[in-house]
Amino acid sequence: MRISVVGTGYLGATHAACMAELGHDVVGLDADPAKVALLSRGEVPFWEPGLDEVLRRALATGRLSFTSDPADIADCVIHFVCVGTPQRSDSPAADLAQVNAAVEALLPHLGPGRLLVGKSTVPVGTAAGIAQLVQGTGAHVAWNPEFLREGHAVEDTLRPDRLVFGVREAEDEAILRQVYAPLIESGVPVLVTDYATAELVKVSANAFLATKISFINAMAEVCEATGGDIVTLSAALGMDPRIGPQFLRAGLGFGGGCLPKDIRAFMARAGELGVDEALMFLRDIDDINLRRRQHAVDLAVTALDGDAAGRIVAVWGAAFKPESDDVRDSPALHVAQALHDSGARVVVHDPRAMANAQRLFPALAYAPSALAATEDADVLLLLTEWREYVDADPAEAAARMRHPVVIDARNALDPQSWRRAGWAYRALGRPAS
Ligand code: UDX
Predict the structure, then answer these.
(1) For 104-132, what is each residue's pLDDT tens digit?
(2) Region 2-193: CATH code
(3) Between the N and C ends of the chain, which has fewer C-beta atoms within 10 Å?
(4) Which mutation among 258, 286, 293 tests ligand 1's pocket best, with the greatest number of atoms within 8 A of CB?
């Protein structure tokens, strides 16, 4: 099938490459010519494990191309909209400018037999609005949310837990079943639904995940007040199959380009719909999450005897999570910048996100290696749990520090081996010794 993918960011680039991998002819459209040039050369403009291989394989077959000219997608039958929906700068609601621009760009190429498929995360009601807009062309609209995680994008696209098709016509369901035929044949379940449910599956899934993380972080606050240990508590809770162990890792909380803005946009939309009370609890979820960042800053300042001015703080991690170079709403950089604002010299290392961090946080210092960041530092903060930090030799790092104090804000290090190597070990939600 001849497919276009509009928007080639984390979602769109992955979707385009994976659709070509499934055997379709795919054109990726993006307004940014630099991104188009990189992708056309087989270079992924961001860090996503495994995507470069799929991209190059797809380019080599001749089934995948990228363009910034909307005319190049004129003969595509299916158009996937994969653009970003960030938080508005003036409110917690979603900014739909890119979605609107994508629909605008597609309009001249829509007609009977054409299907516009939304994948972007949008406020419920958006699909119906777009359907009304394109009605005159004879084209149809479907909503097919994606659930991919950065760092696992290829796997999540080719082996998703489920496929959700929000459609109005049986023929559109049939087209989507054809697009995803190899996945469906391999056993991926399909749920066919109306637009509103399809849109809601995505935002409520993210709201639930955010809630699970903030729940365990709220328990961490209680542990801090009582001497309890959140890591053991979390392990015990996760053994109950009704609860499950995933997304119960207490620490610095959630960040990134999805969970924080999605729960805020969901609350804003609920307000517009007159059901704001139903989602009032998400305000607490957001607050608990942001409190963890402040708590990490407070622990660091305490480790610096109450005054960060002129002290050296080593920070391991800048990305919002490991296996990503994404620093959007990164808890790690939030903490690093707050300590810088308190007067500390903050030296950051990250295996993949240094360039993105440097662009957005130019006032912070950056070290070429994890060990170099610890040189003469008064405290070390582990803020993103990259494997390289978890596996680091605590003795080697201790030798470089002025004061070997570590704050494990992701509960990722082994307290015993770090203490044995001479470190004062502190963590979020765990007793000090
Ligand atoms: C998320 C959803 O998981 C995905 O389904 C959706 O399509 C997009 O949003 P992503 O933003 O890539 O994906 O990251 P995710 O792995 O969900 O992690 C989000 C944040 O939560 C990270 O900052 C991570 O460090 C944090 N997290 C995750 C925790 O603090 N504790 C956990 O137990 C799990």
Answers:
(1) 999 999 999 999 999 999 999 999 999 99
(2) 3.40.50.720
(3) C
(4) 258
What is the pTM (predicted TM-score) of this model?
A: 0.96
In the reported structure, the alpha carbon of residue 138 is separated from the centroid of ligand 1 by a whole-number distance in angstroms of: 39
Annotation says 18 is catalytic: no
Ligand 1 atom with the smallest distance to the CA of 256 is 11
Class of the domain covering 194-433? alpha beta
Tokens of 116: 């516009």
Q: Which ligand 1 atom is at minimum distance from the Cα of 252?
A: 30
Gap from CA of 314 to ligand 1 centroid (Å): 24
Cβ of 259 less than 6 Å from ligand 1: yes
Q: What are the pLDDT digits (tens) for 383-419?
A: 999 999 999 999 999 999 999 999 999 999 999 999 9
| Cα–Cα dist 424/416, whole Å | 10
SS (H, E, C) 117-147: EECCCCCCCHHHHHHHHHHHHCCEEEECCCC
- Alpha-carbon distance of 127 to 104, in angstroms, equals 14
Q: How far apart are the C-alpha atoms of 247 and 260, rounded to whole Å?
A: 15
The whole-angstrom separation of Cα 205 and Cα 207 is 5
Whether 247 is in the pocket of ligand 1, judged by its Cβ within 6 Å, is: yes
- 206 CA closest ligand 1 atom index: 2
329 in contact with ligand 1, CB cutoff 6 A? no
Q: Cα dist. 43→52, 259, 324 in Å?
A: 6, 27, 16
Residue 340 carries which side chain, given as an amino acid letter? Answer: H
For residues 276 and 154, give the distance between their C-alpha atoms in angstroms, rounded to a whole number.
Answer: 36
Q: Which of 18, 82, 223, 258 is catalytic?
A: 258
- 377-394 burial code (b ≥16 CB/10 A, e <16): bbbbbbbbbbeebeebeb
Integer-rounded Cα radius of gyration of the chain: 23
